[in-house]
Every structure is written in C-alpha cells, then in structure tokens.
Amino acid sequence: MIKIVAMLKRRPDLTLDDFSRYYEREHAPLFARTIPPAVDRAIVHYVQNHAVVLGDGRAEPPYDCVTEIGFADLAGMRLWSAFYNGPDGAVLREDEERFMDTSKRVVVVTEARFPVER
Question: Does residue 118 lie in a domain region?
C-alpha cells in the first residue's frame, strides 16, 4: 500500500479540541463531498490519528494529528495528488487554512511493509 502520511499542527489560535473537532466535523465531511468518484475509489485507507495529551497537559505534542491516506498503488496516489493540487482541490486547501498551520505540515509518501493486524 502507498500512503501519504501528513503530520499536522493546528493554528496557534486554536485549542487541540477545537482543531480536532473542526477536522472531524467540518473538514472530513467536506473531503467526502468534494473528491471525485474516481479519486474516492482510489483511496483504500484513511485514518486521522489525533494526539493524546499525557501527564499534566503542559507538554505540547509536536504534531496534533497524523493523517494517513492509503492507495493500492502509485497510480491511485497520483490521481489523488492531481486532484488535490489542481483547481478542484482548492476548496480543501483553502479550508485547511481555517484550522491547520500549513507552514508546519510535514508530508511523506510511504510504502507500507509488513503490516501486523492483531
């Protein structure tokens, strides 16, 4: 599986709860409404891994969410990338500015190997 793994940081004016709530309740539904059927079919895995604050809460997590978007192959990932980076993906990119500090976003394209399911 080819995955886009995105490490995301919230805007400084938002709490972690505000960030998570917006991402789950506003951006994810926008994502689902916006992507074309061919791109939707290319996505075989999608997970938002939200940070958990431990201890007394004073330590700030380096990222607030790690999002994974998985594809069966590079062709599917390229289809997604063409959509997301093109004119039709602008609605998603613009919405990300409402809750993410996009200057701190780190994106890595990976190949999942040796997955272990328990």
Answer: no
Q: Is residue 42 one of the residues assigned to a domain?
A: yes
In DSSP notation, the chain reads -EEEEEEE-B-TTS-HHHHHHHIIIIIHHHHHHHS-HHHHHHEEEEEEEE----TTS-SPPS-SEEEEEEESSHHHHHHHHHHHHSGGGHHHHHHHTTTB-GGG-EEEEEE--S----
pTM across the whole model: 0.89
CA–CA dist 84, 90 (Å, integer): 7
Whether residue 117 lies inside any domain: the answer is no
Residues 18-29 pLDDT 10s: 999 999 999 999
Containing domain of residue 61, as a range? Answer: 2-111
